[in-house]
Design a protein that fits this description.
Layout: E1 6-12, E2 28-32, H1 39-50, E3 55-59, H2 61-66, H3 69-76, E4 80-83, H4 96-110, E5 115-116, H5 125-133, E6 137-138, E7 143-144, H6 153-163, E8 168-171, H7 180-195, E9 199-201
Parallel strand pairs: 1-3, 1-9, 2-8, 3-4, 5-6, 7-8
Helix pairs in contact: 1-7, 4-5, 6-7
């Protein structure tokens, strides 16, 4: 499928915790990571730059507030930024006022963005109504690599490769704990899929 693109997304969470079928044609995939300004973040940005790839970083407000250069660095590198709430709660357990506050407090730090990702992918009718009512598009993922459990870089890589299909959103995590497996897996996956003609972009419109 010549000309297709794979979209990458990265969830940027707090720095104190942790966040198609391949063919020989150019494909499209979306990847997602929770991230923060630590050596693993720098390495992820380097890998994306090396492969001329772009990602959407979903940023936790508390992380962005603690490291104000993070969002600027990601945008300067050509990546887009989405809202990932302020403190990473399960929004389905909050009141309308608290859901609204979670989105708005982060928006005050990262600036405007049309895309939002509820933590844990937890969405019900109220969360969806409040979030879209604030002008956001709710953006989840298709492939959960479960890299946060650190199953081994080879396992994470294979989950990315096996799940890759045009337009698929891959979820990876950055920041907190040891993210060396995620970094190594991303490196290997980009190398393998590049050879098969895949290209990587940020989520359109984010």
């Amino acid at each position: 499928m010549p000309g297709a693109r794979l979209v990458l997304t990265v969830d940027v969470e707090e720095w104190f915790h942790v966040c198609g079928h391949p063919t020989y044609d150019i494909q499209e995939r979306w990847e997602t990571f929770p991230s923060r300004v630590v050596p693993s973040t720098e390495r992820i940005l380097e890998l994306l730059d090396r492969t001329s790839s772009h990602a959407t970083f979903f940023v936790l407000g508390r992380a962005a507030g603690a490291h104000p250069g993070l969002v600027a660095d990601e945008r300067a590198a050509g990546h887009s930024v989405g809202n990932h709430t302020t403190t990473h709660p399960d929004l389905t357990k909050l009141s309308v006022a608290d859901i609204t506050s979670q989105w708005q407090r982060t928006a005050n730090v990262i600036g405007g963005t049309p895309c939002a990702r509820p933590p844990y992918g937890a969405v019900n009718a109220t969360v969806h109504q409040v979030t879209t009512g604030l002008g956001y598009r709710v953006q989840l993922w298709d492939i959960d690599t479960r890299d946060w459990s650190r199953p081994g870089a080879d396992v994470i890589t294979q989950r990315i490769v096996d799940g890759a299909r045009p337009g698929a959103v891959v979820l990876l995590h950055d920041g907190g704990n040891d993210r060396s497996q995620t970094v190594a897996a991303l490196d290997a996956a980009l190398t393998r899929l590049d050879a098969a003609g895949w290209r990587y972009e940020a989520i359109p419109g984010c």
